[in-house]
C-alpha cells in the first residue's frame, strides 16, 4: 500500500507538468485552431533561460519563473507576429505543420550548438530535501513546483473567465468573424494567445529545472504528451487539459509500478490510440 501511495503521489506531481503543457497547447489551439508542434522545444528554451539566469545572476530557479514567463511571452508574440500570422493567411494546415516542426528543430539544434549536448542541472541548498508524510516521501523541489503549477493553472482559468482580455480570447475562439464584428482585434488576440501558450511552456520548463536535467531534446517527450493531453482532455478545454494531464501522470506511474517502467511509453501511446478510436466510434454512432 505504501508503494502504491508513493506511485500515486509521483504520478500526481509529474502529471501537473503535463497539465500545464496541455493547457498552453490548448490555449493556442482553441483560438487559432493550429497545433503547435514546437511546444516541447519552448519548454526546453525555458529550462535554458532559467539555467542562464542562475549562472549569470545566481537566482534561485523559482525566482526565475516570472522572468522566464515574460521573456517567453515576448518570444511567442514575436514568433506569432512574424511567422505564424503570415502562415495563417495561406489557410494551409500543411504550411503551419512544417513551420512549427521546423521551428522546433531550429530551437533544439540551436540549443545543441550553443550549449552542447551535456546534461546540466541547477543544484540548490534544498535539492536533496525530502518531506515525509506517513508512508509517502516527497522531494521538496517537486512539491514546490506542483504548488506553483496549481497557482498558475487557477490564475489561467480566472484570467480566461473573468478578465476582459480573457473574454475576448474566448470570443475569438468561438467565432472569429463575430468577434471582429463587435470590434475585437483578432490579430492582437492571436499574438496574445500564442504568447500566453509559449509562456506557459516556459514556466513549466523553469519549474522542471529544480529536479530535472537540462539538455537540448528535453522538451520532446513533454511536447508529445501535451498533444495527448489536448486530445484526451478535449480540444480547447482548459479544465479538460488539466485533468487529462493528471490522468496521464498517474497512468505512467501505475504502469511502471504494476508492469514495468520500460512499458510506460508504450501503454501511454496505446491508450491514446484507443481513446481516439472510441471517440470516433461514438461520433459515428451518433450520426
Outline the secondary-structure elements.
Blueprint: H1 2-32, H2 39-57, H3 65-89, H4 93-115, E1 130-133, E2 136-139, H5 140-162, H6 164-174, H7 176-181, H8 186-208, H9 220-233, H10 238-258, H11 264-286
Antiparallel strand pairs: 1-2
Characterize the structure shown:
The protein is mainly alpha-helical and 287 residues long. It has a domain of 200 residues. It has 11 helices and 2 strands, in the order ααααββααααααα. It has a two-stranded antiparallel sheet with strand order 1-2. Helix 1 runs antiparallel to helix 8, helix 3 crosses helix 8 and helix 6 crosses helix 8. It is globular, with a radius of gyration of 19 Å.
The portion of residues forming beta strands comes to: under 5%
Mind summarizing the main beta sheet? Answer: 2 strands, antiparallel
Radius of gyration: 19 Å
Shape: globular
Distance between the termini: 45 Å
Number of strands: 2
Helix fraction bin: over 70%
**pLDDT < 50 runs, ≥5 residues:** none
The oligomeric state is single chain
Look at the structure and give the mean pLDDT: 90
Summarize the structure.
By secondary structure, the protein is an all-alpha fold. It has helices at 2-32, 39-57, 65-89, 93-115, 140-162, 164-174, 176-181, 186-208, 220-233, 238-258, 264-286, and strands at residues 130-133, 136-139. The chain contains 11 helices and 2 strands.
